[in-house]
Amino acid sequence: MSTQEKIIKKIKKIELNLKKIKNLGTIDVLILNQNEQKRAALERFLYLICNSIISLLEMMITLKNYQTATNYAENAYILHENKEISNEQLELLLNIIGFRKVLSHDYEKLNLSILVNIVTKEINEIENLLQFFESKI
């Protein structure tokens, strides 16, 4: 499978998990406090999305034949330094990378307001980012 095919496959996986989040229905702090299963599903789908976006960055670097990063954030910086992504996209990617760390290591301290904010405001930004990456291959 070519790198381009892998990128398309990864984008489709992210889109599927975004759809799963939308299928959860209304998401607010009260609902997440009352419904542990919905909260767990939301956290899992967001974690999978974050991991897939990190993989997507690595694939884009491979596709463009840029230097290999030594950590997740460096992937975003490499793409930014090579004018592949904008300042706003860099900021979004760094937020995603940071949020993945919280989901995987500090999940007990996770602020439900942050989860709700991501679902209500940042999902569209992630969808736009996916369309942008798809246009780059």
Describe the structure.
This protein is mostly helical and 137 residues long. Helix content is 80%, strand content 0%. It has helices spanning 3-23, 29-34, 36-64, 72-81, 87-105, 112-135. Helix 4 (72-81) runs antiparallel to helix 5 (87-105). The mean pLDDT is 90.
Produce a short descriptive summary.
By secondary structure, the protein is mainly alpha-helical.
Defining key terms:
137 residues; mainly alpha; Four Helix Bundle (Hemerythrin (Met), subunit A); 6 helices; 0% strand; globular
Task: Please describe the topology of this protein.
Layout: H1 3-23, H2 29-34, H3 36-64, H4 72-81, H5 87-105, H6 112-135
Helix pairs in contact: 1-3, 1-6, 3-4, 3-5, 4-5
Distance between the termini: 14 Å
Number of domains: 1
- Low-confidence stretches are none
What is the CATH architecture descriptor?
A: Up-down Bundle
CATH fold node name: Four Helix Bundle (Hemerythrin (Met), subunit A)
Task: List how many beta strands DSSP finds.
Answer: 0
Strand content: under 5%
- For this structure, the quaternary state is single chain
Number of helix segments?
6
What form results from the Cα inertia axes?
A: globular
Helix content: over 70%
Q: Measured on Cα atoms, how large is the radius of gyration? A: 15 Å
Q: Strand-and-helix sequence, N→C?
A: HHHHHH
- The top level CATH class name: Mainly Alpha
Instruction: Specify the biggest β-sheet.
Output: none
What is the CATH homology-level superfamily?
bsu32300-like
